[in-house]
Design goal:
224 residues; alpha/beta; Undecaprenyl pyrophosphate synthetase; 7 helices; globular
């Protein structure tokens, strides 16, 4: 039976869900937070140590400005209202991506990271303004700057996920089968599950079904 240590999720389909059921993409993003809270709590119950969430990509800046503003306001409110609860649950929050948001959001993200830094029940890696291609190029630049040999060990130390084990599972909801510039290096040997459901419809039963399937998979890592 495979040990599950790290789950990564592309939470796709919020906007489409909102248009389908509420005639508003923003309502879909709001509904997606409820699913997120359920999955976080279930991840703790399953004693999974790492959860990486693709919340906002470098490509998402192409979306309408009103929707982007709503997303960031939603994030600010969520962190302000939930950070104490996350802290009590012994959850560590780490941001991967480039923090070039408003000074208010940047300061809030830094504050949440500092407040939860010593927690060790679950580490949530929140991918904000994250793009894997940028991460890979930047890692090579760091290697060159510090004049280190280009090898796998040194390279991994220069990634934003340094000291974080690679995901065992990637889940993508929303009936889309692609990686969308997410953790391209780290997902090399992850088991990938593409789910038809939109993210707000994804529930604990779906999550546990995936976990059961993962634990029964024979993982060879190139061996036989």
């Amino acid at each position: 039976m495979n040990h599950l240590n790290h789950v990564a999720i592309i939470m796709d389909g919020n906007g489409r869900w909102g248009l389908k059921y509420k005639k508003s993409r923003n309502e879909g993003h709001k509904a997606g937070l409820k699913s997120l809270e359920e999955i976080i709590n279930e991840t703790i119950k399953k004693n999974i140590k790492y959860l990486t969430l693709y919340a906002f990509s470098t490509e998402n800046w192409k979306r309408p400005k009103k929707e982007i503003n709503y997303l960031f306001n939603l994030l600010e409110n969520f962190l302000q209202n939930k950070i104490e609860d996350l802290n009590k649950k012994n959850i560590k929050l780490k941001i991967i991506g480039v923090k070039n948001f408003s000074s208010k959001l940047n300061n809030l993200l830094i504050s949440c990271e500092r407040k939860t830094n010593k927690n060790n029940k679950l580490q949530i890696n929140l991918a904000l303004n994250y793009g894997s291609k940028y991460e890979l190029i930047n890692a090579f630049k760091k290697l060159r700057k510090i004049n280190k040999s280009i090898n796998e060990k040194n390279f991994q130390k220069c990634l934003q996920t340094a000291n974080i084990p690679d995901p065992d599972i990637l889940i993508r909801t929303g009936n889309t089968q692609r990686l969308s510039n997410f953790l391209l290096w780290q997902l090399a040997y992850s088991e990938i599950f593409f789910i038809k459901k939109l993210w707000p419809d994804f529930n604990i039963r779906d999550y546990n079904n995936i976990i059961r399937k993962f634990k029964s998979i024979k993982r060879n890592f190139g061996n036989v």
